[in-house]
Write a structure and sequence with these properties.
single chain; 21 strands; about 300 residues; mainly beta; 1 helix; globular; four-stranded antiparallel sheet; five-stranded antiparallel sheet; disordered N terminus
Length: about 300
């Protein structure tokens, strides 16, 4: 049966034109998938996804098979196909992107602020993106959190989670298929709601049509954990239009942890499983104390109407 996307038209004030957006109910697969600290996800074909966990035992990635029903707008099957390790130490793997032309994955690490290339068996190829020195000097734990590859433009994108010291904007950096740096774009990040919130850019996704989706999240975790909250915002930018990017809000939602709700989700990973859809994955801190879950969430988005 041919798959179709069920979309709900919502008016988003920050958009220049109307978009149809539907944020689906979150799902988790406690019995099918291992507990993790999932921070990045990339489709690699045949309903399979490479997923990085930033506190995994070693450098590498999981492969999950996720079958998505775009009529229902939900994941209907989840299977863990195992962890594929490079045999090297964990380097706080955060962002992941797949390049179909070489059949290889690229993974950004926040501990070393490097982006290495991997074969699908988990081994490194010996190649890496030539990350500019200034990005490698990002503050600890605020480095290269995100990574995307645009198949049409044949270009990689990455940025730091927070602005570099002394700056108030993010440097969204592009790289060609030769792995050399290209243009740098100015991306204006959101200000935190308050100093009590952890905030920044956690994910990037390039659907292959010139657009780039940016996942910004703000997280507040009180000392006693009850009352924890996340604010998730997805923005769209078009890197080819200007060196200073104009961000447009696609959708915004919140998650909470309280006596009535345990759907708190620190979403960090973002990808496009098929045209018109986005998929987010959350970091549960290994399903912290049996309370948190490894949430997945689908978002249906159409193109602009003009």
């Amino acid at each position: 049966m041919k798959k179709t996307c069920l979309l709900l038209a919502l008016m988003v004030p920050m958009l220049a034109a109307a978009q149809a957006v539907r944020v689906m109910k979150p799902q988790h697969f406690k019995r099918q998938l291992p507990a993790g600290n999932y921070s990045g996800i990339a489709p690699i074909g045949d309903d399979r996804y490479a997923v990085v966990s930033d506190k995994a035992a070693g450098d590498g990635f999981y492969v999950f098979r996720l079958r998505i029903d775009t009529v229902q707008g939900r994941i209907v099957e989840a299977v863990n196909e195992g962890y594929r390790s490079s045999g090297l130490p964990n380097r706080d793997m955060e962002g992941i992107a797949y390049r179909p032309s070489t059949g290889t994955l690229f993974i950004s690490g926040e501990a070393d602020n490097e982006v290495y290339e991997y074969r699908l068996d988990g081994e490194r190829t010996g190649r890496r993106l030539l990350v500019p020195v200034e990005l490698q000097q990002a503050a600890p734990n605020y480095g290269l959190e995100s990574l995307a590859y645009d198949v049409q433009a044949r270009r990689f994108y990455t940025t730091t989670e927070h602005p570099l010291p002394g700056e108030s904007w993010l440097r969204l950096c592009s790289f060609g298929d030769d792995l050399r740096p290209g243009r740098q774009y100015i991306y204006p990040p959101d200000e935190p709601v308050s100093r009590k919130y952890i905030y920044g850019v956690a994910g990037l996704c390039a659907p292959g049509d010139g657009r780039l989706y940016v996942l910004e999240r703000q997280v507040r975790i009180p000392r006693l954990k009850i009352g924890a909250k996340t604010v998730i915002r997805l923005y769209e930018v078009r890197p080819a239009e200007s060196d200073t990017l104009q961000k447009r809000l696609v959708c915004e939602f919140t998650t909470r942890l309280n006596l009535l709700s345990r759907r708190f989700a620190n979403f960090e990973g973002l990808c496009s499983p098929c045209p018109g859809w986005l998929l987010l994955v959350a970091d549960s801190q290994d399903q912290y104390k049996g309370i948190l879950r490894d949430w997945f969430r689908l978002v249906a988005v159409t193109k602009e109407t003009n």
